[in-house]
Amino acid sequence: MHKVNKLVCAIALGVLLGASATTASANSREFVYVESNAQGANQNSIFAFQRNPDGTLAQIPGSPFLTGGAGVQDKNVEFGPYDTDQNIVIDKHRRLLFAVNSGSDSIAVFHINSDGSLKTVAGSPFPSGGESDGVGPVSLGLSGDTLFVANQAGDPGRPTTVLPSYTAFHVDLDGTLRPVDDSTVSVAFLTSPSQALVVPNRNLMFGADFLGGLLQSFQFDGEGRLRQRPPTALPASEFAGIPAPRAVLGLITHPRLPLLYVGMPTVSRMAVYRFDDRGRLTFVRSVPNSGIAICWLRPNKEGTRLYTSNQGSFTPTSTISVYDLSNPEAPKEIQSIAPLGTSNATQIELSGDGKNLYVVSQHFNTITPPNQGKELHVFTIAADGSLSENVLPVPLPVPDGTQPQGVAVFTDN
User: Which of these, 80, 82, 195, 276, could form a disulfide with 403 (CB 3.0-4.6 Å)?
Assistant: First the structure.
Protein backbone atom coordinates (compact mmCIF):
# COMPACT_ATOMS: atom_id res chain seq x y z
CA MET A 1 0.00 0.00 0.00
CA HIS A 2 1.26 3.50 -0.79
CA LYS A 3 1.85 5.78 2.15
CA VAL A 4 -1.32 7.42 3.43
CA ASN A 5 0.41 10.52 3.34
CA LYS A 6 2.64 13.36 3.58
CA LEU A 7 7.61 28.27 2.53
CA VAL A 8 5.18 29.74 3.47
CA CYS A 9 6.42 31.13 0.12
CA ALA A 10 6.91 34.45 -1.50
CA ILE A 11 3.98 36.03 -3.23
CA ALA A 12 4.73 37.96 -6.39
CA LEU A 13 6.23 41.42 -5.85
CA GLY A 14 6.16 40.96 -2.06
CA VAL A 15 2.54 42.07 -1.78
CA LEU A 16 0.89 41.98 1.60
CA LEU A 17 -1.40 39.00 1.88
CA GLY A 18 -4.74 38.91 3.61
CA ALA A 19 -4.42 35.73 5.65
CA SER A 20 -6.34 36.35 8.87
CA ALA A 21 -9.15 38.44 10.26
CA THR A 22 -7.62 38.28 13.73
CA THR A 23 -5.69 41.25 15.07
CA ALA A 24 -2.27 40.36 16.47
CA SER A 25 -1.10 41.80 19.77
CA ALA A 26 0.55 45.19 19.47
CA ASN A 27 3.24 44.01 21.88
CA SER A 28 4.35 40.93 19.94
CA ARG A 29 5.39 39.92 16.47
CA GLU A 30 4.63 36.57 14.95
CA PHE A 31 6.65 34.86 12.23
CA VAL A 32 5.52 31.81 10.26
CA TYR A 33 7.96 29.43 8.54
CA VAL A 34 7.34 26.64 6.01
CA GLU A 35 9.83 24.40 4.22
CA SER A 36 9.88 24.38 0.43
CA ASN A 37 11.18 20.78 0.35
CA ALA A 38 12.71 21.41 -3.10
CA GLN A 39 14.66 18.33 -4.18
CA GLY A 40 17.60 19.77 -6.10
CA ALA A 41 21.06 19.98 -4.59
CA ASN A 42 21.16 23.01 -2.28
CA GLN A 43 17.62 23.94 -3.38
CA ASN A 44 15.69 23.26 -0.18
CA SER A 45 14.71 26.45 1.64
CA ILE A 46 12.65 28.06 4.38
CA PHE A 47 10.11 30.70 3.43
CA ALA A 48 9.04 33.23 6.01
CA PHE A 49 6.16 35.59 6.73
CA GLN A 50 5.44 38.13 9.43
CA ARG A 51 1.92 38.56 10.73
CA ASN A 52 1.05 42.24 10.71
CA PRO A 53 -1.04 44.02 13.38
CA ASP A 54 -4.08 43.90 11.10
CA GLY A 55 -3.71 40.14 10.70
CA THR A 56 -2.30 40.10 7.18
CA LEU A 57 0.92 38.28 6.32
CA ALA A 58 3.91 39.91 4.66
CA GLN A 59 6.89 38.20 3.11
CA ILE A 60 10.05 38.79 5.11
CA PRO A 61 12.86 40.41 3.09
CA GLY A 62 15.49 37.90 2.04
CA SER A 63 13.08 34.97 2.00
CA PRO A 64 13.49 32.18 0.94
CA PHE A 65 16.48 31.14 3.05
CA LEU A 66 18.48 28.23 1.64
CA THR A 67 19.06 25.30 3.99
CA GLY A 68 22.18 24.06 2.25
CA GLY A 69 20.55 20.74 1.44
CA ALA A 70 17.81 18.98 -0.49
CA GLY A 71 14.23 17.95 0.09
CA VAL A 72 12.58 14.80 -1.20
CA GLN A 73 9.53 13.71 -3.16
CA ASP A 74 8.08 10.35 -4.14
CA LYS A 75 7.31 10.99 -7.81
CA ASN A 76 5.68 7.61 -8.26
CA VAL A 77 2.54 8.57 -6.36
CA GLU A 78 0.29 11.58 -6.02
CA PHE A 79 0.71 11.65 -2.26
CA GLY A 80 2.97 14.09 -0.46
CA PRO A 81 6.70 13.49 0.03
CA TYR A 82 6.58 11.74 3.37
CA ASP A 83 4.21 10.87 6.19
CA THR A 84 5.87 13.18 8.70
CA ASP A 85 5.41 15.90 11.28
CA GLN A 86 7.68 18.46 12.98
CA ASN A 87 9.84 19.00 9.90
CA ILE A 88 10.70 22.39 11.43
CA VAL A 89 11.08 23.19 15.14
CA ILE A 90 12.03 26.38 16.95
CA ASP A 91 14.02 27.06 20.11
CA LYS A 92 12.28 30.25 21.22
CA HIS A 93 14.68 31.11 24.04
CA ARG A 94 17.81 30.95 21.90
CA ARG A 95 16.05 32.10 18.73
CA LEU A 96 17.12 29.08 16.69
CA LEU A 97 15.24 27.33 13.87
CA PHE A 98 15.98 23.72 12.92
CA ALA A 99 14.83 22.10 9.66
CA VAL A 100 15.31 18.72 7.99
CA ASN A 101 17.04 18.17 4.67
CA SER A 102 15.38 14.82 4.00
CA GLY A 103 17.03 14.34 0.61
CA SER A 104 20.60 15.03 1.73
CA ASP A 105 20.70 13.58 5.26
CA SER A 106 21.34 16.75 7.21
CA ILE A 107 19.82 19.25 9.63
CA ALA A 108 19.87 22.97 8.87
CA VAL A 109 20.15 25.43 11.76
CA PHE A 110 19.39 29.16 11.60
CA HIS A 111 19.49 32.14 13.95
CA ILE A 112 16.15 34.01 13.95
CA ASN A 113 16.86 37.72 13.60
CA SER A 114 14.73 40.43 15.20
CA ASP A 115 12.92 41.02 11.89
CA GLY A 116 12.16 37.31 11.45
CA SER A 117 14.79 36.78 8.78
CA LEU A 118 17.11 33.79 9.10
CA LYS A 119 20.91 33.62 9.33
CA THR A 120 22.66 30.30 8.81
CA VAL A 121 24.53 28.99 11.86
CA ALA A 122 28.22 28.43 11.19
CA GLY A 123 28.82 24.84 10.08
CA SER A 124 25.18 24.24 9.06
CA PRO A 125 23.87 21.90 7.75
CA PHE A 126 24.95 19.11 10.11
CA PRO A 127 24.84 15.35 9.34
CA SER A 128 21.60 13.87 10.68
CA GLY A 129 22.91 10.46 11.70
CA GLY A 130 24.60 11.46 14.90
CA GLU A 131 26.95 8.63 15.82
CA SER A 132 25.66 6.38 13.02
CA ASP A 133 24.63 6.47 9.35
CA GLY A 134 21.37 8.40 9.58
CA VAL A 135 19.44 8.56 6.29
CA GLY A 136 16.37 10.62 5.50
CA PRO A 137 15.75 12.88 8.53
CA VAL A 138 12.05 13.76 8.64
CA SER A 139 11.11 14.95 12.14
CA LEU A 140 12.69 16.95 14.97
CA GLY A 141 11.96 17.21 18.68
CA LEU A 142 13.52 19.63 21.16
CA SER A 143 14.08 19.38 24.91
CA GLY A 144 16.24 22.13 26.38
CA ASP A 145 19.60 21.93 24.63
CA THR A 146 18.94 18.48 23.14
CA LEU A 147 17.62 18.02 19.60
CA PHE A 148 16.12 14.63 18.68
CA VAL A 149 15.93 13.42 15.08
CA ALA A 150 13.84 10.70 13.44
CA ASN A 151 15.71 9.30 10.42
CA GLN A 152 13.17 7.53 8.22
CA ALA A 153 15.52 5.93 5.67
CA GLY A 154 12.67 5.94 3.18
CA ASP A 155 13.70 8.21 0.29
CA PRO A 156 12.28 6.44 -2.80
CA GLY A 157 14.97 7.99 -4.97
CA ARG A 158 17.80 6.66 -2.79
CA PRO A 159 17.20 3.04 -1.79
CA THR A 160 19.23 2.04 1.26
CA THR A 161 19.83 -0.85 3.59
CA VAL A 162 20.52 1.49 6.50
CA LEU A 163 18.04 1.00 9.32
CA PRO A 164 15.71 3.84 10.34
CA SER A 165 16.70 5.42 13.63
CA TYR A 166 16.08 7.93 16.37
CA THR A 167 19.09 9.88 17.62
CA ALA A 168 20.07 12.96 19.66
CA PHE A 169 22.29 16.02 19.36
CA HIS A 170 23.53 18.56 21.88
CA VAL A 171 22.78 22.13 20.78
CA ASP A 172 25.62 24.50 21.64
CA LEU A 173 24.90 28.13 22.52
CA ASP A 174 25.85 29.19 18.98
CA GLY A 175 23.51 26.59 17.43
CA THR A 176 26.18 24.06 16.52
CA LEU A 177 24.95 20.44 16.69
CA ARG A 178 27.11 17.76 18.33
CA PRO A 179 26.08 14.09 18.36
CA VAL A 180 25.23 12.68 21.79
CA ASP A 181 27.28 9.53 22.36
CA ASP A 182 25.38 6.29 22.84
CA SER A 183 22.05 7.88 21.91
CA THR A 184 21.12 6.29 18.57
CA VAL A 185 18.35 3.67 18.57
CA SER A 186 17.73 1.79 15.33
CA VAL A 187 14.30 0.36 14.52
CA ALA A 188 13.07 -2.26 12.08
CA PHE A 189 13.73 -1.91 8.36
CA LEU A 190 10.98 -0.11 6.39
CA THR A 191 8.91 0.74 9.50
CA SER A 192 9.05 4.41 8.43
CA PRO A 193 9.48 6.56 11.57
CA SER A 194 7.52 9.78 11.08
CA GLN A 195 7.69 11.83 14.26
CA ALA A 196 9.89 12.53 17.29
CA LEU A 197 7.49 13.94 19.89
CA VAL A 198 9.11 15.25 23.09
CA VAL A 199 6.80 15.43 26.11
CA PRO A 200 7.19 18.88 27.73
CA ASN A 201 8.73 18.90 31.22
CA ARG A 202 9.35 15.14 31.20
CA ASN A 203 12.34 13.14 30.01
CA LEU A 204 10.14 11.25 27.57
CA MET A 205 9.85 11.05 23.80
CA PHE A 206 7.31 9.16 21.71
CA GLY A 207 7.82 8.06 18.13
CA ALA A 208 5.40 6.96 15.42
CA ASP A 209 6.60 4.18 13.13
CA PHE A 210 4.08 4.80 10.38
CA LEU A 211 4.31 1.65 8.29
CA GLY A 212 5.17 -0.54 11.27
CA GLY A 213 1.98 0.49 13.07
CA LEU A 214 4.05 0.93 16.22
CA LEU A 215 4.30 3.54 18.96
CA GLN A 216 7.86 3.97 20.17
CA SER A 217 8.55 5.13 23.72
CA PHE A 218 11.87 6.47 24.97
CA GLN A 219 13.27 7.83 28.20
CA PHE A 220 16.32 10.08 27.99
CA ASP A 221 18.82 11.29 30.57
CA GLY A 222 20.25 14.76 31.11
CA GLU A 223 22.71 14.24 28.26
CA GLY A 224 19.99 13.19 25.82
CA ARG A 225 20.90 9.50 25.68
CA LEU A 226 17.83 7.56 24.53
CA ARG A 227 16.64 4.38 26.23
CA GLN A 228 13.97 2.51 24.31
CA ARG A 229 11.01 0.75 25.87
CA PRO A 230 9.41 -2.16 24.00
CA PRO A 231 7.28 -0.67 21.20
CA THR A 232 3.49 -0.69 21.46
CA ALA A 233 1.40 -2.03 18.58
CA LEU A 234 -1.92 -0.40 17.80
CA PRO A 235 -4.77 -2.51 19.31
CA ALA A 236 -5.90 -5.32 17.04
CA SER A 237 -9.49 -4.63 18.11
CA GLU A 238 -9.39 -1.29 16.27
CA PHE A 239 -8.84 -3.11 12.95
CA ALA A 240 -11.07 -6.13 13.45
CA GLY A 241 -12.93 -6.95 10.25
CA ILE A 242 -11.33 -4.01 8.44
CA PRO A 243 -8.93 -4.78 5.56
CA ALA A 244 -6.61 -1.91 6.47
CA PRO A 245 -2.98 -1.88 7.63
CA ARG A 246 -2.22 -0.73 11.17
CA ALA A 247 -0.66 2.58 10.19
CA VAL A 248 0.00 5.27 12.79
CA LEU A 249 0.55 8.93 11.97
CA GLY A 250 0.15 12.01 14.14
CA LEU A 251 1.07 12.17 17.83
CA ILE A 252 0.44 14.90 20.39
CA THR A 253 0.16 15.02 24.18
CA HIS A 254 -2.40 16.85 26.28
CA PRO A 255 -0.86 20.12 27.55
CA ARG A 256 -1.55 19.30 31.21
CA LEU A 257 -2.37 15.60 31.56
CA PRO A 258 -0.38 12.41 30.84
CA LEU A 259 -2.43 11.58 27.77
CA LEU A 260 -1.20 10.80 24.26
CA TYR A 261 -3.48 11.28 21.26
CA VAL A 262 -2.70 9.16 18.20
CA GLY A 263 -3.95 9.36 14.60
CA MET A 264 -4.96 6.07 12.98
CA PRO A 265 -5.38 7.20 9.36
CA THR A 266 -6.41 3.92 7.73
CA VAL A 267 -9.49 3.59 9.96
CA SER A 268 -10.19 7.32 10.47
CA ARG A 269 -10.06 7.12 14.25
CA MET A 270 -8.07 8.83 17.00
CA ALA A 271 -6.68 6.72 19.84
CA VAL A 272 -6.22 7.92 23.40
CA TYR A 273 -3.46 6.50 25.62
CA ARG A 274 -2.42 7.19 29.20
CA PHE A 275 1.30 7.19 29.96
CA ASP A 276 3.35 7.11 33.16
CA ASP A 277 6.69 8.67 34.10
CA ARG A 278 8.55 5.79 32.46
CA GLY A 279 6.69 6.18 29.18
CA ARG A 280 4.58 3.05 29.54
CA LEU A 281 1.42 3.35 27.45
CA THR A 282 -2.07 2.16 28.32
CA PHE A 283 -4.77 2.21 25.65
CA VAL A 284 -7.94 3.98 26.85
CA ARG A 285 -10.19 4.10 23.79
CA SER A 286 -10.51 5.40 20.27
CA VAL A 287 -12.96 7.98 18.95
CA PRO A 288 -14.25 8.45 15.40
CA ASN A 289 -13.10 11.06 12.93
CA SER A 290 -15.51 12.19 10.21
CA GLY A 291 -12.75 12.87 7.70
CA ILE A 292 -10.48 10.62 5.67
CA ALA A 293 -6.96 9.82 6.90
CA ILE A 294 -6.57 11.72 10.18
CA CYS A 295 -2.85 12.48 10.30
CA TRP A 296 -1.84 15.63 12.23
CA LEU A 297 -2.99 16.79 15.67
CA ARG A 298 -2.61 19.92 17.82
CA PRO A 299 -4.35 20.95 21.09
CA ASN A 300 -4.79 24.50 22.31
CA LYS A 301 -2.77 25.65 25.33
CA GLU A 302 -5.76 25.43 27.64
CA GLY A 303 -6.38 21.79 26.78
CA THR A 304 -10.02 22.46 25.89
CA ARG A 305 -9.87 21.90 22.11
CA LEU A 306 -7.89 19.65 19.79
CA TYR A 307 -7.52 20.19 16.04
CA THR A 308 -6.82 17.46 13.47
CA SER A 309 -5.89 17.56 9.79
CA ASN A 310 -7.63 14.86 7.77
CA GLN A 311 -5.89 14.87 4.45
CA GLY A 312 -8.32 13.01 2.20
CA SER A 313 -7.25 10.59 -0.49
CA PHE A 314 -7.27 11.21 -4.26
CA THR A 315 -10.41 13.33 -3.87
CA PRO A 316 -10.96 16.89 -2.60
CA THR A 317 -12.34 15.66 0.72
CA SER A 318 -9.65 17.11 2.96
CA THR A 319 -11.06 18.45 6.25
CA ILE A 320 -10.02 19.98 9.55
CA SER A 321 -11.77 18.67 12.67
CA VAL A 322 -12.31 20.31 16.05
CA TYR A 323 -12.60 18.12 19.15
CA ASP A 324 -14.03 19.10 22.53
CA LEU A 325 -11.69 17.96 25.32
CA SER A 326 -14.09 18.58 28.21
CA ASN A 327 -13.51 14.91 28.93
CA PRO A 328 -9.84 14.59 27.88
CA GLU A 329 -10.01 10.79 27.75
CA ALA A 330 -13.04 10.85 25.44
CA PRO A 331 -12.61 13.64 22.85
CA LYS A 332 -15.78 14.56 20.99
CA GLU A 333 -15.71 15.89 17.43
CA ILE A 334 -17.78 19.08 17.30
CA GLN A 335 -16.85 20.54 13.90
CA SER A 336 -15.55 19.43 10.53
CA ILE A 337 -14.64 22.10 8.00
CA ALA A 338 -13.20 21.75 4.51
CA PRO A 339 -10.41 24.15 3.53
CA LEU A 340 -11.17 26.43 0.62
CA GLY A 341 -10.31 24.96 -2.77
CA THR A 342 -9.53 21.35 -3.61
CA SER A 343 -6.09 20.84 -2.05
CA ASN A 344 -5.25 18.30 0.66
CA ALA A 345 -4.47 19.53 4.18
CA THR A 346 -1.27 18.32 5.83
CA GLN A 347 0.76 19.78 8.73
CA ILE A 348 -0.88 22.25 11.10
CA GLU A 349 0.21 24.66 13.83
CA LEU A 350 -1.50 27.14 16.15
CA SER A 351 -0.56 30.81 16.38
CA GLY A 352 1.11 32.00 19.55
CA ASP A 353 -2.04 33.72 20.79
CA GLY A 354 -4.22 30.73 19.93
CA LYS A 355 -6.44 32.76 17.61
CA ASN A 356 -5.37 31.22 14.30
CA LEU A 357 -4.64 27.79 12.90
CA TYR A 358 -2.11 27.58 10.07
CA VAL A 359 -2.55 24.67 7.65
CA VAL A 360 -0.14 23.67 4.86
CA SER A 361 -1.82 21.93 1.94
CA GLN A 362 -0.36 19.88 -0.89
CA HIS A 363 -1.45 18.52 -4.25
CA PHE A 364 -2.19 14.81 -4.22
CA ASN A 365 -5.61 14.33 -5.72
CA THR A 366 -6.70 13.84 -9.32
CA ILE A 367 -9.14 16.76 -9.42
CA THR A 368 -6.91 19.73 -8.56
CA PRO A 369 -5.09 21.06 -11.67
CA PRO A 370 -1.43 19.99 -11.88
CA ASN A 371 0.97 21.77 -9.53
CA GLN A 372 -1.84 23.69 -7.83
CA GLY A 373 -3.25 23.23 -4.33
CA LYS A 374 0.07 23.97 -2.62
CA GLU A 375 -1.14 26.62 -0.24
CA LEU A 376 -1.10 28.09 3.24
CA HIS A 377 -4.55 28.25 4.84
CA VAL A 378 -5.18 30.50 7.83
CA PHE A 379 -8.23 29.69 9.91
CA THR A 380 -9.67 32.03 12.52
CA ILE A 381 -10.43 30.41 15.89
CA ALA A 382 -13.55 31.73 17.62
CA ALA A 383 -13.98 32.01 21.39
CA ASP A 384 -15.68 28.60 21.47
CA GLY A 385 -12.77 27.03 19.54
CA SER A 386 -14.63 26.68 16.25
CA LEU A 387 -12.93 27.45 12.94
CA SER A 388 -13.69 29.64 9.95
CA GLU A 389 -11.62 30.40 6.87
CA ASN A 390 -12.43 33.95 5.91
CA VAL A 391 -9.79 34.67 3.26
CA LEU A 392 -8.43 32.87 0.24
CA PRO A 393 -5.47 30.58 0.91
CA VAL A 394 -1.99 31.85 0.09
CA PRO A 395 -0.43 30.04 -2.93
CA LEU A 396 2.93 28.40 -2.20
CA PRO A 397 4.74 28.44 -5.55
CA VAL A 398 7.38 25.70 -5.52
CA PRO A 399 9.09 23.85 -8.37
CA ASP A 400 7.08 21.31 -10.35
CA GLY A 401 6.93 17.97 -8.60
CA THR A 402 7.59 19.51 -5.19
CA GLN A 403 5.37 19.40 -2.12
CA PRO A 404 5.96 21.97 0.65
CA GLN A 405 5.96 20.55 4.15
CA GLY A 406 6.09 21.59 7.80
CA VAL A 407 4.99 24.76 9.52
CA ALA A 408 6.43 26.46 12.61
CA VAL A 409 5.44 29.63 14.42
CA PHE A 410 7.70 31.98 16.41
CA THR A 411 6.12 34.68 18.56
CA ASP A 412 8.58 37.39 19.60
CA ASN A 413 7.20 39.10 22.70
Answer: 80
